[in-house]
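Entry 14. Structure prediction run on the chain below.
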Amino acid sequence: MPAQQAIRRWFDRNYASLGLSYLRPAEFYSIFLDYLDVQPGDRLLDVGCGPGLLLERALERELDAHGVDLSVVALSMARRAYPRARLSACNAESLCYPTGSFDHLTCIGVFEHCLDPDRTLSEMKRVLRAHGRLCIMVPNSRTLKWRIEADLLRQHDEDSNENAATFEAWRDIFLRNDLLIEQIHRDEWPRHQRWRWLHRRPFGYATTPKRHLAPLRYANQFVFVMRPG
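Output returned:
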């Protein structure tokens, strides 16, 4: 599929030129595992695992950690850094695992690149076990940051197929695919960066205060924690 190949090449270029520099530190991926309440021995799949930063945190918690990605560059980085993680090159719209394989599924900063969101969600539900839960983070089209990046700087080029939507639009996509939304969080990373810079605190996401003045619908990104209906 030409569009899928363009997305893969886009990610390959980014990882080859930028490495880990445009990703948040590995420590901050712990928050997504906290939302899922993972336990040692649980089986987790990270869809769009990139160079494996979330898998690092999963392995530290003694999870059976699996990751899939389109980018051969990212998978090569992950294999070198985390040899205990089980990695595969495959498409989120056709996951290379049997039905009912996982207790948890994460998809952080990737779902917005998928060509067919409905088919992707169908595959995610298929590979989850009956009690399984998934955590997906998606960007908000309502923010000034997104509008500047998309309209002024033209950072979200056609090859990346990167899309944003409003809170209501993302929620409706998940609901129409028979997902039960258990939790909705704002992405804490941008706020943590500001807090850390202002207060010179040691790194650690738990140090960021949790009070927010702006309504959730204005968050930079949304984190949905769900389970199949």
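The mean pLDDT is 89.
Filed with the rest of this week's runs.
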